[in-house]
């Protein structure tokens, strides 16, 4: 594919408008994660208070994700996202104003943080379902790559920019910027032509629609298998890495500067992975994602054996590249093979799996490492990732799933996908 064709999706007005709002709100969110920590600590908060604030955002997001998926398939997705971003703009704006006025009681901070989690639970499933409505079918891989690159860029640049702004202004100012970023996103959503039609729910109850979404999710062997693998990856590999990585950097590599370099290198790898994938459409995407995600274990392996810092950074770079490639191909594959009228519900189950056990891993990694060793806990994660990837790679449902129009017709692709599944037929939501 020619270089200019890799960005041809921007010719679509709806996608271009949405992209601007998405980039802006992601940058604001990445900045706010740093600002919120300083806001709590500067408000005479303790590390325990900060943990409570972070939990107050995550818990409602996890609990309400499945309901957000139902709403994304029952109501116009653009409307659900408008409500979600409005809630987040108001909650962040209110917190910023209160912090500018004076000290804020912890319960107020917890309440507003929970509102942000509610907004995320509403936004994410509808976002996953809206993207195929914004980009032409033949440009969907590029659309997902570009959106992933935008998120990676925000995750790298946002915290750095927030650190500068907090130093020269205040945490409240950064939170106000985040609130304004959601306002920009709301404006972009208001300008969209797509996403205004609600799928026909047939008058079903929310519980019935959740069950239908589960049937649509569980009918695809490749879908629930990779979701389960990713869920356990978060528990056994990624959560210990996030907790024990900074500790290892402090003990073996000189401190926070080394950890910042490792994290920044991972973010740079994510950007590089998005660029490398643009215009490339593998015929068997899940084979590619499974092979490349062996690299997810590389940073943990390097830290476990106390490799030189440059080796750890190289491992983080490789993991960042693989993360971007996986996310883009995974999202595109789901959007191409899951019926549009159940896509938000299916994605809510996928996302729920990704988030549900992560906090457990975060809570257990530190105590387990104290009882054994950092190297052992990280090595267990590495061994698990290699074993899990090897098992997934042997599954016919993963190996035989073809991308539409890759090297065969779309109808033939669907037939090959179905033959790769178990005997259970594809169950669209009703």
Automatic annotation (TrEMBL):
Gene Ontology CC annotation, any one: plasma membrane
InterPro entries: MFS_trans_sf, TM_effector
Record's keyword annotation contains Membrane: yes
Region of interest called Disordered, as start-end residue ranges on this chain: 405-430
Subcellular location(s) per record: Cell membrane
Membrane topology: Multi-pass membrane protein
Residues spanning the membrane: 15-40, 52-72, 93-119, 165-192, 213-238, 258-278, 285-303, 309-334, 346-368, 374-395
Alphabetically ordered keywords of this record: Cell membrane, Membrane, Transmembrane, Transmembrane helix, Transport
Pfam families assigned: MFS_3
Composition-biased stretches (Low complexity): 410-424
Gene3D superfamilies on file: MFS general substrate transporter like domains (1.20.1250.20)
Protein name: MFS transporter
Lineage: Bacteria, Bacillati, Actinomycetota, Actinomycetes, Kitasatosporales
């Amino acid at each position: 594919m020619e270089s200019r064709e890799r960005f041809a999706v921007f010719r679509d007005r709806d996608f271009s408008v949405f992209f601007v709002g998405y980039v802006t709100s992601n940058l604001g969110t990445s900045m706010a994660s740093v600002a919120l920590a300083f806001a709590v600590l500067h408000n005479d908060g303790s590390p325990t208070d900060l943990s409570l604030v972070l939990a107050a955002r995550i818990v409602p997001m996890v609990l309400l994700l499945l309901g957000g998926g139902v709403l994304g398939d029952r109501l116009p997705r653009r409307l659900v996202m408008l409500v979600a971003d409005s809630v987040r703009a108001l909650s962040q704006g209110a917190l910023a104003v209160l912090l500018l006025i004076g000290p804020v009681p912890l319960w107020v901070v917890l309440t507003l943080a929970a509102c942000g989690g509610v907004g995320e639970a509403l936004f994410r499933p509808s976002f996953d379902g809206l993207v195929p409505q914004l980009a032409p079918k033949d440009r969907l891989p590029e659309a997902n790559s570009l959106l992933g690159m935008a998120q990676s860029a925000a995750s790298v640049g946002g915290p750095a920019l927030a650190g500068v702004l907090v130093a020269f202004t205040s945490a409240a100012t950064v939170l106000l910027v985040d609130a304004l970023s959601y306002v920009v996103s709301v404006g972009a959503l208001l300008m969209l032509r797509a996403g205004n039609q609600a799928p026909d729910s047939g008058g079903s109850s929310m519980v019935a629609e959740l069950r239908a979404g589960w049937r649509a999710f569980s009918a695809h062997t490749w879908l629930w298998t990779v979701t389960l693998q990713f869920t356990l990856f978060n528990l056994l590999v990624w959560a210990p890495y996030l907790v024990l990585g900074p500790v290892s950097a402090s003990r073996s590599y000189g401190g926070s500067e080394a950890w910042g370099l490792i994290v920044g290198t991972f973010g740079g790898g994510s950007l590089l992975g998005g660029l490398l994938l643009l215009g490339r459409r593998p015929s068997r995407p899940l084979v590619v994602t499974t092979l490349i995600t062996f690299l997810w274990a590389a940073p943990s392996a390097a830290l476990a054996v106390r490799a030189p810092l440059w080796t750890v950074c190289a491992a983080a770079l490789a993991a960042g590249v693989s993360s971007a490639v996986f996310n883009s191909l995974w999202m595109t594959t789901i959007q191409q093979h899951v019926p549009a009228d159940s896509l938000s519900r299916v994605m809510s189950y996928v996302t729920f799996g990704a988030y549900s056990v992560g906090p457990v891993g975060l809570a257990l990694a530190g105590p387990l490492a104290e009882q054994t060793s950092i190297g052992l806990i990280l090595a267990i994660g590495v061994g698990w990732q290699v074993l899990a990837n090897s098992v997934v790679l042997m599954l016919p449902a993963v190996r035989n799933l073809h991308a539409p129009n890759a090297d065969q017709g779309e109808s033939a692709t669907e037939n090959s996908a179905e033959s790769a599944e178990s005997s259970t037929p594809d169950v669209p939501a009703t």
